[in-house]
């Protein structure tokens, strides 16, 4: 081989290497396979339940190009396709989710207007719960301000848990502390899709959910994550999508039976071996359909 031929071959190799290295990550023609967090063989025993509460967009998020990460989770894990919120506006849904009843509330008034002495999942758990509330100015803050909405933080409405609220209802920070039996994660009113585009909330999920999936609790098959919406403000049926992310939940486990926020409360109480509150007693469980 002549020197000239050798030089041309080396030059071609250098050009090829430079071209490959300049391709942006994710720009290849084939999608690099990612291991699904669900459908993983092996026994699971759930001691930790995490809820992420989103706002108002409802079932239209399923299949939306603005919610690619949400829909990726739906394809990889479980999705309740016939799940209904129980009321409108926001607050009665949060109270129903945590106490088994709307407690007669039909507005979004501050805790000063709704002091609830009723039992809740928080009182059932004593101190073994945690609220991680994004943009909340101070611990267990009872007053809406900035991007923090007290109406999205149900713990501050229950008077019987005032002491534990001051210890356990915290401004969200990273890394997430998921040691409690029950953790309720509430984005601020932008990241929850309430006051900002769906794509903003989806980007927030893309940042936060992987940290939950990488946690020791999820990796030890003891944590199940539910992602739901408080209400659907554009549909009379109040249908919302609810994701179920757990190692034992099969891939693309889309369940069409009628479920509701009371089902989510019942499922959480069942997994954590608690009594059933209010309408959770008669609601359908999500345990068997999602293989929990």
Write the SSE topology.
Elements lengths: L2 H19 L26 E7 L13 H9 L1 E7 L5 H10 L21 H5 L3 E5 L28 H7 E3 L10 E5 L11 H16 L2 H4 L3 E7 L9 E7 L7 E3 L3 E2 H11 L21
Parallel strand pairs: 1-5, 1-6, 2-8, 2-9, 3-4, 3-5
Antiparallel strand pairs: 2-7, 6-7
Helix pairs in contact: 3-8
Q: At CATH's second level, what is the architecture?
A: 3-Layer(aba) Sandwich
CATH topology: the name is Alkaline Phosphatase, subunit A
Helix segment count?
A: 8
* CA(first)-CA(last) distance: 66 Å
Question: How does this model look, in words?
Answer:
The structure is a single chain. This protein is α/β, with parallel strands linked by helices and 292 residues long. The chain has one domain: Alkaline Phosphatase, subunit A. The chain has eight helices and nine strands. The chain has helices spanning 3-21, 68-76, 90-99, 121-125, 162-168, 198-213, 216-219, 261-271; strands at 48-54, 78-84, 129-133, 169-171, 182-186, 223-229, 239-245, 253-255, 259-260. Strand 3 (129-133), helix 5 (162-168) and strand 4 form a beta-alpha-beta unit. The chain is globular, with a radius of gyration of 22 Å. The relative contact order is 0.22.
């Amino acid at each position: 081989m002549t020197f000239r031929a050798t030089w041309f071959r080396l030059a071609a190799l250098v050009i090829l290497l430079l071209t490959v290295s300049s391709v942006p990550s994710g720009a290849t023609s084939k999608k690099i396979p990612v291991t699904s967090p669900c459908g993983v063989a092996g026994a699971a025993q759930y001691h930790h339940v995490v809820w992420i509460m989103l706002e108002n967009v409802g079932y239209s998020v399923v299949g939306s190009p603005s919610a690619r990460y949400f829909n990726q989770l739906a394809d990889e894990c479980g999705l309740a396709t016939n799940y209904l919120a129980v009321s409108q506006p926001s607050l009665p849904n949060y109270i129903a989710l945590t106490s088994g009843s709307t407690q007669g509330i039909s507005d979004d008034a501050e805790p000063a207007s709704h002091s609830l002495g009723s039992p809740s999942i928080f009182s059932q758990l004593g101190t073994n719960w945690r609220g991680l509330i994004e943009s909340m100015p101070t611990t267990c803050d009872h007053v809406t301000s900035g991007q923090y909405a007290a109406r999205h933080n149900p713990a501050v409405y229950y008077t019987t848990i005032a002491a534990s609220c001051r210890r356990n209802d915290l401004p969200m920070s990273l890394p997430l502390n998921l040691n409690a039996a029950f953790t309720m994660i509430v984005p601020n009113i932008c990241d929850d899709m309430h006051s900002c585009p769906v794509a903003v909330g989806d980007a927030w999920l893309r940042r936060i959910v992987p940290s939950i999936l990488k946690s020791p609790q999820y990796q030890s098959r003891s944590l199940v994550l539910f992602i739901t919406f408080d209400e659907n403000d554009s549909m009379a049926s109040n249908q919302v999508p609810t994701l179920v992310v757990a190692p034992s939940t099969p891939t693309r486990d889309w369940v069409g039976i009628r479920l509701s926020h009371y089902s989510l409360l019942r499922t959480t109480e069942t997994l954590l071996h608690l009594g059933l509150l209010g309408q959770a007693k008669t609601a359908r469980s999500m345990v068997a359909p999602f293989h929990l």
